[in-house]
Design a protein that fits this description.
Layout lengths: L1 H15 L33
């Protein structure tokens, strides 16, 4: 799963003008939740210099 995520980023690096090498990355993957009816809200910020 993570390898596919990173491959996707590498595919659009040039198109988006991302620096190479890419800066450090933190990612969390969730395969499934204990309760299937649980709704998870995520708040995230993207900063572009």
């Amino acid at each position: 799963m993570y390898a596919d995520f990173v491959a996707g980023i590498e595919d659009v690096t040039e198109e988006l003008g991302l620096p190479t090498p890419l800066p450090p990355l933190s990612a969390i993957g969730v395969d499934h939740l204990v309760e299937p009816d649980v709704i998870v809200e995520v708040q995230a910020y993207a900063v572009r210099d």
